[in-house]
């Protein structure tokens, strides 16, 4: 690679300097070809770069060539690289971030570019001692250049990502406020954001509204309480907001926003995804966040179609939060029936309307394990078929018959009469919605899940921990 150049008449230091100048001059002459080789290496080693289009690759090649020229200028002038030498990397870094290139891939591309340049230095150094020494003299300044350039580019990349994230948060918050005010985006950036979330004005997919509120940690349960102050739990809210946004895999980004002291999400149910599956996923998110000492109370609205009903669904989700206990949980309207909801909303007047004989029986039965209550429920679920009810309860039909007679004797209600059976079911729902020893509506969610053996209720509607 010496091209006939001789260093025999030079001192060792002069020979190394001459070899160094020769190596750099040859690289400068072949700079465009070397930049192309670097881009080919990036495409071969980095899948994210290989997946991009030709315009992207042309931009990368231009940037590599600019870096090589800047690097050669610093080396030929034998000076320290300065920030002004690499100022051009800022705009390129922002373009990579905008193109969706991960920071790790972007920095990896810097490494590949540096490796191609260094391999070219080694190749051109040849086998002479002076050539080897010249290559070694270039190693330290090349490392300084690469360190400064990659750090500068990474900082610019992160600045753009932070800007883009802040802009996306603002756009999402503005879109949510538009929906909650009863409006709908019609054009421009806000319409594009709505479409990205599957919430275009003409979209007909079913959706729900989810509200989550951050709670202090229960004493002795998860560690320290949520920090006090005007920005109480801000980090925890944003972490929970991001977790909720990742819940659905329907191909759409879920609109999830920290709004004042609450998190509001508007998930769109994709094909094959029902509200029950959604509630299960939310429950899993809540339980996972408990491991991070983030305690949430979550309310889920009924399923709606069309963004015009988002304000109504928002009020539904907020309303059911009042039923949750102090330790939080999830109150999901898709998980309950209208009958159960009415029982949860009932006031003391509704309870006073219940025949005292029924109230007395239910209180007594609960203290004894709830077998009569379970029998009433099983009989109703079996469409008044005594044998089927007995089979469900895993008891003999004669035992079931005996229980029905006891219930009739104590309450004056014949379970084979629809009106009497309804009276008993309503009384059970009202009684279970306010467990003994409590005077708060927060405990009413206990009336929504059957235990298959006893028929007692344990809270599928909310599952606090």
Structure description:
The structure is a single chain. This protein is an alpha+beta fold and 465 residues long. It folds into three domains: 13-166, Globin-like (Orthogonal Bundle); 201-216 and 234-336, Reverse transcriptase/Diguanylate cyclase domain (Alpha-Beta Plaits, 2-Layer Sandwich); 348-435, Orthogonal Bundle (Arc Repressor Mutant, subunit A). It is built from 18 helices and seven strands. Strand 3 and strand 4 form a beta hairpin. The protein starts with 11 loop residues before the first helix and ends in a 33-residue tail after the last helix. Pfam families: GGDEF_2, HTH_30, RsbRD_N. This is PucR C-terminal helix-turn-helix domain-containing protein. Residues 437-465 are annotated as: Disordered.
Which sequence of SSEs, written as H and E, runs from N to C?
Answer: HHHHHHHHEEHEEHEEHEHHHHHHH
Mean pLDDT: 83
Distance between the termini: 73 Å
Strand content bin: 5-15%
Q: What composes the largest sheet?
A: 5 strands, mixed
* Total of domains: 3
Structural class: alpha+beta
CATH superfamily of the largest domain: Globins
* Oligomeric state, counting identical vs distinct chains: single chain
Radius of gyration, CA atoms, in whole angstroms: 35 Å
CATH class of the largest domain: Mainly Alpha
Number of strands: 7
Helical residues, percent: 55-70%
CATH topology of the largest domain: Globin-like
Strand order of the largest sheet: 3-4-2-5-7
Low-confidence stretches: 218-231, 438-465
Shape: elongated
């Amino acid at each position: 690679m010496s091209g006939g150049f001789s260093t025999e008449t030079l001192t060792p230091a002069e020979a190394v300097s001459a070899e160094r100048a020769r190596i750099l001059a040859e690289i400068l002459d072949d700079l465009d070809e070397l930049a192309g080789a670097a881009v080919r290496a990036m495409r071969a080693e980095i899948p994210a770069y290989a997946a991009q289009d030709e315009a992207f690759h042309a931009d990368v090649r231009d940037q590599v060539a600019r870096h090589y020229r800047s690097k050669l200028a610093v080396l030929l002038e034998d000076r320290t690289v300065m920030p002004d030498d690499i100022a051009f990397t800022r705009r390129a870094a922002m373009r990579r971030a905008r193109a969706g290139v991960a920071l790790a891939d972007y920095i990896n591309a810097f490494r590949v570019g540096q490796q191609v340049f260094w391999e070219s230095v080694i190749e051109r150094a040849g086998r002479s001692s002076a050539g080897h020494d010249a290559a070694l003299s270039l190693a330290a300044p090349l490392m300084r250049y690469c360190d400064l350039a990659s750090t500068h580019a990474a900082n610019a990349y992160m600045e753009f990502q932070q800007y883009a994230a802040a802009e996306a948060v603002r756009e999402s918050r503005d879109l949510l406020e538009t929906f909650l005010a009863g409006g709908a985006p019609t054009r421009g950036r806000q319409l594009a954001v709505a479409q990205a979330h599957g919430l275009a004005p003409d979209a007909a997919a079913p959706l729900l509204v989810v509200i989550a509120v951050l709670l202090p940690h229960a004493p002795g349960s998860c560690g320290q309480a949520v920090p006090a102050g005007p920005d109480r739990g801000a980090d925890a809210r944003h972490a929970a907001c991001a977790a909720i946004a990742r819940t659905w895999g329907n191909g759409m980004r879920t609109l999830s926003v920290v709004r004042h002291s609450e998190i509001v999400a508007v998930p769109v149910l994709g094909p094959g995804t029902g509200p029950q599956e959604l509630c299960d996923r939310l429950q899993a998110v809540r339980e996972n966040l408990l491991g991070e000492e983030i305690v949430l109370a979550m309310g889920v609205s009924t399923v709606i179609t069309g963004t015009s009903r988002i304000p109504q669904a928002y009020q539904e989700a907020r309303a059911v939060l009042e039923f949750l206990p102090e330790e939080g949980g999830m109150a999901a309207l898709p998980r309950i029936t209208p009958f159960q909801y009415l029982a949860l909303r009932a006031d003391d007047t509704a309870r006073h309307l219940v025949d005292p004989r029924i109230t007395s029986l239910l209180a007594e039965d609960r203290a004894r394990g709830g077998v009569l209550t379970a029998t009433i429920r099983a009989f109703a679920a079996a469409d008044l078929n005594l044998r089927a009810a007995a089979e469900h309860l895993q008891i003999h039909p004669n035992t079931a018959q005996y229980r029905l007679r006891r219930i009739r004797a104590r309450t004056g209600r014949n379970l084979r009469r629809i009106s009497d059976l309804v009276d008993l079911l309503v009384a059970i729902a009202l009684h279970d919605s306010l467990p003994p020893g409590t005077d708060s509506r927060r405990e009413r969610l206990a009336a929504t899940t059957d235990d298959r053996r006893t028929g007692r209720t344990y809270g599928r509607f909310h599952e606090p921990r």
